Amino acid sequence: EDKVVQSPLSLVVHEGDTVTLNCSYEVTNFRSLLWYKQEKKAPTFLFMLTSSGIEKKSGRLSSILDKKELFSILNITATQTGDSAIYLCAVIRDDKIIFGKGTRLHILP
Amino acid sequence: DGGITQSPKYLFRKEGQNVTLSCEQNLNHDAMYWYRQDPGQGLRLIYYSQIVNDFQKGDIAEGYSVSREKKESFPLTVTSAQKNPTAFYLCASTGGVYQPQHFGDGTRLSIL
Predict the structure, then answer these.
(1) Per-residue confidence (pLDDT) for residue B1, from 0 to 100
(2) More confident residue, B98 or A20
(3) Do residue B90 and residue A43 have CB atoms under 8 angstroms apart?
(4) I want to staple B55 with a disulfide (CB 3.0 to 4.6 A). Which of A86, A107, B49, B73 is the partner?
């Protein structure tokens, strides 16, 4: 059965800390891996990763995919209270997207 | 601005009642999706449609129904057969199967 597993499920850190969120997957016919940030409502798209070893970066956020070991990480450096959210990992296979349960990140001021 | 509009934002259902959640997009996307989100459960796929007049069941379709009569619209009906409907419902669309999904702001459904 296809699955996407995120860890940790929740994380509390202080502002300024660096965090690493993990996503491992077992999915047949893998196409791409996605990261989303969800605050109160709609998830917003962060990154799409298709190739192994190529880091994608946007400001303080970065992500990389390892297709051999079947995982991805999302790094957030110099965290701010506005980074508090649920971070969702999802894998696109041939006909649909499979989501993990998310990591709930809380940044303390 | 292009986007996905879900309505209403909050909905209350009485026991034995069917309710319909609206999802409209003006992104000209072919594929549309409905997800249910429960605390600590991530997103679970209810139904999806890749083209007008066609749709497929997702992982948790029991107690739900959909229609896709227009490209822009993909309403979800939560029937009385769904015994635990209290959840946050998200609609999404994508311009291609291998593209990221765009999400609406969701509808929160509660039981009275």
Answers:
(1) 62
(2) A20
(3) yes
(4) B49
